[in-house]
Amino acid sequence: MDFQTDQIANTVLGTYDSLPAKYKPVKATDDFFQWVPLSGIVAVEINQVAEAKGFVLRDWHAEIVAIRAFNHFLIRECLELATSPANTSTIIRRREAHELSAAEGLQPFAIHNDLQLHMYSSEAPCGDASMELLMEAQVDATPWPIDQLHLGRKKSPGLLRGRESFAELGIVRRKPGATLACVEHACERCFRPSGRMQPVANKQWKGGYAFHPFKVRATNHEFSFSRRSKPASSKELRTSNIAAVYNPHIKEALILGRLQGRQKLDPKGASAICSKRMWNMTLQVLAALGTPKLLQSISESSRVQEWKKSALFADRQRVKAEATAEALSGWIRNNGDDFEVEPG
Q1: 252, 271 in Cβ contact below 8 A?
Q2: Which terminus of the chain, N or C, has fewer Cβ atoms within 10 Å?
C-alpha cells in the first residue's frame, strides 16, 4: 500500500459519494444493508506518480461498467477532436504524421504520453481472479469433484460457470449470477506475465498491439457500500441492483442493464455505454475524420458483426484469436449481439 494508491481510491470514492441518492443503494436499516461493488478508472500524469440488439448491457458488473464508461469517454473525446481542429483534450492527442503513416491512418488518436491509467475496484474481479478468495472463505477448502465434462479443457475448452470447480485456476470463467494479500496474489496470477498471460507476455503484433502487464496494489480505504461496511445493527446483507455510470460526459443510473424506470426493450432506456450507442458514436468519429480507408469501411456494411470481420479490424482480431488460444483457456465467443449501426 502506498500514498498514491490511496489517492486514486479517494478520487473514485469521492466521485461516487458526490452522486445523488438515486445512483446508490438504499441506506442501511436494522433489517438489512445493501452492498454493491465499485470500480473506476483514473488518469494520472506521470510526473505526479511518485507522489439487447445492442440497447441493453449484458454485463453490468462494476469493473465492466467502469471500462465501458471509460471507453465511452475516450470515443467522445475523439469525436470532439475529429469535429474541429480547434478542439483539444486533456486525455487524447492527435497522432503525428509519422505515427499516422506507421498505422496506415487507421489509428489517428492516442492517449497523451505523460499519462498513466489506474483502475480502482472495491472487490476482487469476478471469475478466475477471485478463486483464492473463495477457497479462503470455505470451512473445508478441499477441492470439489471435477465434472468430467471439463476434463481436458486446456486442449478443448468448455464452459466453466462462475465458481464451480474453484480449485481449477487459470481458466476463463463465465460470470456468476479475504485478505488484501490474497486479492493481490489472485490478480497477479491472472494478469501478470509470469501467470496466466505468460504465453503472450513478450509478443508484439502488427498494428502496435502488445501485452502490457499492470501492477496490482491494495489500498487502506474502504468503500462505504462494500459488503465489509455492513453495520453490526443490520441483520441481513443484500446486493443492490443499481449500477451507477459516470464520466465527465454522462451520468446514469441503471437497473438490469437499462436506464432506471425504463422497460427492458424500450430504445429510450438504452444506456450511453450500450453497444449500439457506442458503435454509433464511433461511426460519427469515422465520418468526421473523412479518411478514405475509414469512409470505405463505413460504406461496406451497416451491421456490427460484419464490421468486426472487416479488414479495418483484421489486426485486432488476429491478436484476440492468438491471445484466446494461447492464454485465455475456456473463453467462449458470444456471437449473438448483432445490430445495425448508424451515426447520430
Answers
A1: yes
A2: C
Question: 22 is written with which cell numbers?
Answer: 438515486
83, 288 in Cβ contact below 8 A? yes
Tell me the whole-structure pTM to 2 decimals: 0.81
Which has the closest alpha carbon to 3: 238, 256, 217?
Answer: 217
Q: Checking DSSP bridges between strand 209-210 and strand 204-205, what pairing results, if any?
A: antiparallel
Amino acid identity at 157:
P
Helical packing angle, 275-289 and 62-83, nearest 10°? 20
Task: Say which DSSP state 174 is in.
Answer: B
Question: Which residues in 56-141 belong to E strands, given as ranges?
Answer: 92-94, 109-111, 115-121
pLDDT at 157: 45
Per 3-state DSSP, what percentage of the chain is helix, strand, and coil (rounded to 5)? 40, 15, 50
As a whole number of angstroms, the distance between CA 255 and CA 245 comes to: 11
- For residue 275, give the 3-state DSSP assignment: helix
Q: What are phi and psi of 88, to 5 degrees?
A: -130, 165
- 15/316 Cα distance (integer angstroms): 33
Choose among 47, 193, 216: nearest CA to 119. 216
Give the relative orientation of helices 292-300 and 275-289 as an angle to the nearest 10 degrees: 140
Kindly state the helix (H) or strand (E) to which residue 37 belongs, with its residue range.
Answer: none
| Residue 44, φ and ψ in degrees, nearest 5 | -125, 135
Q: How far apart are CA 116 and CA 216, in angstroms?
A: 14
CA distance 36 to 271: 19
pLDDT band with cut points at 50, 70 and 90 for residue 180: very low
Nearest residue to 174 (alpha-carbon basis) of 126, 123, 239, 124 = 126
- What pairs with residue 92 in β-bridges? 111
Residue 146: pLDDT band by 50, 70, 90 thresholds?
low
- Coil, strand or helix: which one is 340? strand
Q: How far apart are CA 129 and CA 108, in angstroms?
A: 34
Q: How far apart are CA 140 and CA 148, in angstroms?
A: 22
Give ∠ CA 223-228-233 in degrees, rounded to 5: 110
CB 22 within 8 A of CB 253: yes
